[in-house]
């Protein structure tokens, strides 16, 4: 367990249990005089999170990543391609009942038999999650502006399509001052050449594409860096933890 987990375990164990138990609704409790670090830790420690997600925490560092992304209580989040919902659960409990998470599932998942079963189960269990099936980001419209657009480990797939439209949509969907958070598998110096072959992307290419849409790069994080990764295999084939980057962009006010 990370040191911060140990530091918060005693004080937050009861909060996490109250926020979400296996037999009751996992809607976050109403905390009083608690800063964001404790909200985030309560979400990470929630006993409603499945064991397979918890097993990935050491490699994904969710507490630190959600903190870096500046997620706030009450935020409205648009999560692009949430997959199995690893971050959906954490974001849902971090933003709380005052917030909202729109889980934007690509249509090709929805068209598979049972393709939406997992994310629909999360939405049913977590009252502030809404599943939205996405045909394309150039025509996607959400019922309200969002505070955060979030994408992890799939920007390289977006780059294989009309990523300019995706980034333009993100810019338009966000409130002024809103955040666009991108985390993905790194392939430094490759531009866009590894997006469909190695399922990685050059962080410099992401910076160029997203800032071209009007965003300002606010911060970069090396939390998920792994210099031992040779960057010559797909993350699924690499026999270790892949080298990843995290970028926080902001829409100007």
Automatic annotation (TrEMBL):
Record-level Gene Ontology MF annotations: methyltransferase activity
Keyword Signal assigned: yes
UniProt protein name: Class I SAM-dependent methyltransferase
InterPro entries cross-referenced by the UniProt entry: S-AdoMet-dep_MeTrfase_Alr7345, SAM-dependent_MTases_sf
Keywords carried by this UniProt record: Methyltransferase, Signal, Transferase
GO biological process, one term: methylation
Annotated source species: Erythrobacter westpacificensis
PROSITE patterns according to UniProt: PROKAR_LIPOPROTEIN
Residues spanning the signal sequence: 1-22
């Amino acid at each position: 367990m990370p040191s911060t987990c140990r530091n918060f375990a005693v004080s937050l164990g009861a909060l996490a249990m109250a926020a979400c138990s296996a037999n009751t609704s996992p809607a976050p409790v109403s905390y009083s005089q608690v800063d964001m670090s404790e909200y985030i830790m309560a979400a990470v420690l929630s006993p409603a999170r499945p064991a397979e997600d918890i097993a990935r925490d050491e490699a994904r560092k969710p507490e630190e990543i959600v903190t870096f992304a500046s997620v706030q209580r009450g935020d409205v989040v648009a999560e692009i391609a949430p997959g199995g919902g690893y971050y959906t659960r954490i974001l849902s409990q971090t933003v709380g009942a005052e917030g909202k998470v729109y889980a934007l599932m690509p249509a090709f998942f929805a068209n598979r038999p049972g393709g939406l079963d997992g994310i629909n189960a999360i939405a049913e269990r977590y009252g502030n999650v809404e599943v939205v099936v996405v045909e394309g980001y150039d025509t996607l419209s959400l019922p309200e502006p969002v505070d955060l657009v979030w994408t992890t480990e799939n920007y390289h797939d977006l780059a294989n399509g009309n990523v300019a439209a995706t980034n333009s949509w993100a810019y338009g969907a966000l409130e002024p001052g809103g955040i666009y958070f991108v985390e993905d598998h790194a392939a430094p110096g490759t531009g866009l050449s590894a997006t469909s072959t190695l399922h990685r992307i050059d962080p410099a290419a992401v910076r160029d594409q997203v800032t071209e849409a009007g965003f300002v790069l606010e911060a970069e994080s090396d939390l998920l860096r792994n210099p031992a990764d040779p960057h010559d295999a797909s993350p699924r084939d690499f026999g270790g933890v892949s080298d990843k980057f995290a970028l926080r962009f902001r829409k100007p006010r």
